[in-house]
Amino acid sequence: MSRIHRGALAFCAAGSLVALAGAQVITPIAATGFGDFGTSPTATIDGSGLVGTPGLGASHDPTLPDNSWVVDPFFSGELTGVYELGGLYTVDGGFLWNQNNGGPDPLGATGVSGLDFFASTNGVDFAFVGSASFDQEFGDISFEQAFGLGAFDAAFIRVSSTANFGGVFGPGFAEIRFTGRLVPAPGAAALLGLSGIVVARRRRA
Fold first, then answer.
1. What are the distances in angstroms from CA 67 to CA 34, 63, 110?
2. In whole angstroms, what is the distance from residue 179 CA to residue 23 CA?
3. Cα 95 from Cα 143, distance rounded (Å)
4. Residue range 36-47: average pLDDT?
5. For residues 82 and 135, is the Cβ–Cβ distance under 8 A?
6. How far are the Cα atoms of 70, 83, 87, 167 from residue 30, in angstroms, in the given order?
7. Contacts by 125-134 with C-beta closer than 8 Å and gap 24+?
8. 3-state class of 43 per DSSP?
9. Alpha helices in the chain, H assignment, sequence order
């Protein structure tokens, strides 16, 4: 299980994640899943409550129903949802902002202590790609927590958890982003290869 790192600790001096060359922060274009207490997984990708730039030490305001995602273990049970990335990416990790003292449990006890991740290229067939554990946020502000997953190709990522920090409600979290690089379409890759051949021939000439 991958451990998390706080804010800038996950970055090299240039401000980029130390993993895939050319990796970028990926904001999913859609999120599906069930939420309780008036929450929704959509709130975890819309930037509501975020202060700053994801991937550069952003923080999150007190967690409320309109800016976080929580399930009731007595009703929905497992926290599970699917994120659509908006393209095929080679993903290597991401960032998460956990539920904090904003509730529904005090001292961030609702927050997710760990997530399992599953990847898919078509939105139908998913394969387990790794797990990550996260810190409890005792105060009213959530801090950026970076996690690593290795490298895998995905257009959709499913997350799943039943573990919080001992709260009556949850688990849940406030915001999530992934990191990786876009996989070129087959036609674009062929054009890149062709341009490389042309450049090589010009150099020989």
1. 15, 6, 14
2. 6
3. 10
4. 97
5. no
6. 17, 6, 12, 28
7. 126/156, 126/158, 129/154, 130/1, 130/2, 131/1, 131/2, 132/1, 132/2, 132/3, 132/4, 132/93, 132/96, 133/1, 133/2, 133/3, 133/4, 134/4, 134/96, 134/98, 134/173
8. helix
9. 186-204
DSSP SS3 for 107: helix
Contact assessment for residue 46 and residue 28, using Cβ atoms and an 8 Å cutoff? no
Q: Is 106 helix (H, G, I), strand (E, B) or coil?
A: helix
Find out whether 133 and 96 touch, Cβ atoms under 8 Å: no
**What is the arithmetic mean of pLDDT over 86-98?**
98
* Whole-Å CA distances, 186 to 75, 147, 151: 45, 30, 20
Amino acid present at 151: A
Tokens 């990708």 identify what position?
45
pTM: 0.85
What is the token pair recorded at 48? Answer: 């509501």
So what's the pLDDT on residue 186?
81
Helix, coil or strand: residue 158: strand
CA distance 200 to 158: 43
Give the integer Cα–Cα distance in Å for 164 and 75: 16
